[in-house]
Amino acid sequence: MNSLSDLLLVFHGSRTEGVAGEALAFRDALAAQGNWRSVSPAWIQFGEPSVEEALERLANDGARRVVVIPLLVLPGRHLDVDLPRAVQAFRERHPGCAVNMTGSLVSTDGFDRLIAAVAEEAGSRQRAVGRGQ
């Protein structure tokens, strides 16, 4: 990835207090690891900005190449219908901005190894940490 690409992290969203802060902390941690022009969050529901709003903000800020990363574990309506529809509408309005979208997390190479490592680490602790306590 080079500095000309913008990342759009798409979260499902939640009504649970504090979740947006966790999403922004994740965004910040990811941004610190790469060489992207920007890393922005968007929410399918229960959060702002929406995917459509976030894409428009990126275009207004001069984005030329956007990588949309849905942080959704499994395929479903949002991943198969809602997001592709939003991306296609954006492409039609902004033909000079290339947009690529990744698939579900389970279809991502290495996701199974990541989950195995997380499970191994959690299994070696005396007690779980985080929301899964």
Description:
This protein is of the alpha/beta class and 133 residues long. Helix content is 40%, strand content 17%. It has one domain (5-104): 3-Layer(aba) Sandwich (Rossmann fold). It has a four-stranded parallel beta sheet with strand order 2-1-3-4, with helices on both faces. Helix 3 (77-93) links the parallel strand 3 and strand 4 (98-101). Helix 2 packs parallel to helix 3.
Q: Sheet bearing the most strands, described?
A: 4 strands, parallel
Rg to the nearest angstrom? 16 Å
Strand element count: 4
Average per-residue pLDDT, rounded, comes to 91
Query: DSSP helix count?
Result: 4
What oligomeric state best describes the polypeptide chains here? Answer: single chain
Distance between the termini: 36 Å
Name the CATH class: Alpha Beta
Number of domains: 1
CATH level-3 fold name: Rossmann fold
Strand order of the largest sheet: 2-1-3-4
- Structural class comes to alpha/beta
Approximately how much helix is present in the residues? 25-40%
Strand-residue proportion? 15-25%
Based on the coordinates given, report the CATH architecture. Answer: 3-Layer(aba) Sandwich
Overall body shape: globular
SSE topology string: EHEHEHEH
Low-confidence stretches: none
